[in-house]
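Running this now, will post back.
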Amino acid sequence: MNYCPRCGAYIPEGFDECLACGYSIHENKQADAGQAARPQGHGASGGQTTATAQAPDPAEYHQAHKKAEGKKTEEYEYGTETQEKTKKKFDKATEEMRDASEYQSVSYLSYLGPLCFIPYFFCGNSPFARFHAGQGIRLFVLELIVNACWGMGLFGVMAGLAGSVLVAWCVLNGFLNVSQKKKRRLPVIGNLFS
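Update: finished.
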């Protein structure tokens, strides 16, 4: 096993350079040859200054290297997590659009009186059709109440007129929502019994 004399990192067999700090073994041999040619002992204490003595402390280098690697890993994981969330959102939106396209025609029945029960019972695996069937059932209950109001004298007739306008408005909104492939609630009655 070879270890870098500068930083102490492991150098795999077959490599001439340290993968961590870029230190070259060839440079080390040339530096050693140059030092052998130079007279030894300079400075006040007559000590020798080598490349190893000038190198940073391996422990400090490894700590700094670990922090940098940890930061890169966190960034990578965060990026991967964000990509996965975006992919899930895209897949969900694609699935919803496919479902709306497939069951759009039958969802129109939801706003045609008692026909609202057809998509409710026969399209149970479609969230789009089930949603509009639920809105259609609310509308059907409103229609029954409005029809009952017509036989209750003057106030019943007034309530029936107001209710008929509301029913027509809800039917138009329902058809518009289905044609736009949106799961929007009907005005006024859309949140009842939810």
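The two ends are 70 Å apart (CA to CA). More later if anyone needs it.
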